[in-house]
């Protein structure tokens, strides 16, 4: 099945200082998009909980170039994703770094950390548009 592409979706980009007021909204979207984690008590011990997501986002706000991209329809946020420029050492870690080809390690790297779309808005091209943005 080919995903439908919505034309009534507005994409907005936010920098570090603009994200804290959005934390509740993105946490709700993430929870809705990941019910298998939210409803699994073991997930929280693995760091896969709403509280862990909040800590992760707040921790990543310190990275210069942090960008959150949000999708809105009818004034309501229905999806988000965020990323930040980082070094190969940071992204891959010391244990994997030796296995990463040199041309990848030498290039620019943007760490894409989360992409989530509310279930009722999935398969409509929203995630693809945010990723491209």
How do the SSEs run, as a string of H and E? EHHHHEEHHEH
The dominant shape is globular
What is the SS-derived class? Answer: alpha+beta
Question: Ends: how far apart?
Answer: 24 Å
Quickly give the CATH architecture: 3-Layer(aba) Sandwich
CATH class: Alpha Beta
Number of strands: 4
Percent helix: 25-40%
Q: For the residues shown, what is the average pLDDT?
A: 80
Helical element count? 7
Give your account of this protein's structure:
By secondary structure, the chain is an alpha+beta fold. The protein has one domain: 3-Layer(aba) Sandwich (Aminopeptidase). It has 7 helices and 4 strands. The protein has helices spanning about 25-35, 35-40, 40-45, 50-60, 90-95, 100-105, 125-130, and strands at about 10-15, 65-75, 75-85, 110-115. A 4-stranded antiparallel β-sheet has the order 1-2-3-4. A hairpin with a 2-residue loop joins strand 2 (about 65-75) and strand 3. Helix 1 (about 25-35) crosses helix 4. The chain starts with 8 loop residues before the first strand and ends with a helix. About 20% of the residues are buried. The mean pLDDT is about 80.
């Amino acid at each position: 099945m080919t995903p439908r592409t919505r034309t009534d979706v507005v994409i907005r980009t936010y920098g570090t200082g603009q994200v804290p007021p959005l934390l509740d909204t993105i946490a709700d979207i993430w929870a809705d998009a990941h019910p298998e984690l939210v409803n699994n008590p073991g997930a929280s011990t693995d760091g896969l909980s709403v509280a862990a997501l909040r800590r992760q986002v707040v921790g990543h706000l310190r990275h210069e170039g942090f960008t959150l991209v949000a999708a809105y329809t009818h004034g309501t946020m229905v999806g988000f994703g965020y990323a930040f420029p980082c070094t190969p050492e940071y992204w891959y870690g010391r244990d994997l770094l030796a296995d990463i080809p040199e041309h990848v390690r030498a290039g620019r790297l943007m760490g894409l950390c989360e992409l989530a779309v509310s279930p009722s808005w999935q398969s409509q091209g929203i995630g693809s548009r945010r990723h491209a943005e």
